[in-house]
């Protein structure tokens, strides 16, 4: 999860800017992990990163801008891990192991930044069409196709991804008292059943 | 879907009130079906039911009250159909046929009242814990237990129900262009796979 997204072909100045940005995002991510998203104020991030508050404002414009950047950053790191990282998330594992690892990792992400994810998806309009969700969908579909789910892969990917909805995970965790381990095991069981189960002949139960 | 919820042991006066209420709800439901939820105004419902606007206000208080009653009414009818109605939704069908019919019927409900359902679930706080969802959850869990999913039934029910989220169905239908038939077939395929698939040994893929 901490794999940095590689940066190539930039000038020294742009590298410095990228490093500063990274440092501020790391500070903000630590604050979220330790004390929740409400603890992420421009002041707290500046103090944590050892810079002036003005630097944080110049870089991100506002707290909302910082929060959006934080989510983008962590989604990029997650995508990178899925595409190029070590197994079981990355390409050197079996597709079914990657599928299971994907959900486990999304559930772990909720632990650290669930409120951020939920806030990003709180609008009914953006909840299903937002960019990270699209990337997750394509990744799941690709894995399901590799496993042999054929033309049904895309809609199955939609249905499986719905089970990882950050709002649902938070509800199951905080309101119903399930542990994240139980939720991750349920994801593993669900996906294992789906990929080992029989596809439904299209004529059956079609009333 | 049109099975009326039975009313027992009431005086003639209460029966009249129930009939009037039913008539107003039927008028409102027809308006939703024909012209969408925005068409449901107190005026339009009164005109459609052939009563004065004051009657509609006396009965439901406000447009929001009317919309809530409309959703309650249709959820009650749906619950009644699941518990006592004819197969494949009701108890005289095999559990797997009932499971598949349940999802197909929820997807059909979205066609008629998707915007209502989505509006009812638009608050992040009430999206997962609202009463109709709880009832659906219990019904799905009961079917999964009967099929033999054991202790995993409750969390599997959560995951499957997420695939029927009205917002997701509306997004797939309106934004992505899937037909409701395709979405219902996906539900049938998903649930068939889940109940015929192998459960995951708890030690596997547990990293």
UniProtKB/TrEMBL annotation, chains A, B:
Keywords: DNA-binding. Residues 18-78 form the HTH tetR-type domain. InterPro entries: Homeodomain-like_sf, HTH-type_TetR-like_transc_reg, HTH_TetR. Coiled coil: none annotated. The keyword DNA-binding applies. It holds the Pfam family TetR_N. Gene3D superfamilies: Tetracycline Repressor, domain 2. Residues 41-60 bind DNA. This is Helix-turn-helix domain-containing protein. It comes from Rhodococcus artemisiae. The lineage of its organism: Bacteria, Bacillati, Actinomycetota, Actinomycetes, Mycobacteriales.
């Amino acid at each position: 999860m901490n794999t940095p997204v590689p940066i190539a072909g930039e000038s020294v100045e742009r590298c410095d800017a990228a490093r500063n940005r990274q440092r501020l995002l790391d500070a903000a991510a630590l604050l979220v992990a330790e004390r929740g998203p409400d603890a992420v104020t421009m002041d707290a991030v500046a103090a944590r990163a050892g810079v002036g508050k003005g630097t944080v404002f110049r870089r991100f414009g506002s707290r909302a801008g910082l929060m959006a950047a934080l989510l983008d950053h962590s989604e990029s790191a997650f995508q990178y891990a899925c595409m190029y990282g070590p197994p079981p998330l990355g390409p050197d594992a079996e597709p079914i192991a990657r599928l299971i690892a994907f959900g486990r990792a999304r559930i772990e992400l909720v632990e650290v930044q669930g409120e951020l994810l939920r806030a990003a998806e709180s609008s009914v309009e953006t909840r299903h069409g937002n960019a990270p969700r699209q990337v997750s969908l394509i990744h799941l579909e690709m894995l399901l196709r590799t496993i042999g789910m054929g033309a049904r892969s895309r809609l199955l990917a939609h249905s499986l991804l719905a089970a990882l909805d950050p709002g649902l995970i938070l509800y199951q965790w905080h309101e119903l008292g399930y542990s994240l381990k139980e939720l991750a095991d349920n994801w593993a069981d669900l996906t294992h059943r789906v990929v080992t189960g029989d596809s439904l002949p299209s004529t059956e139960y079609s009333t």
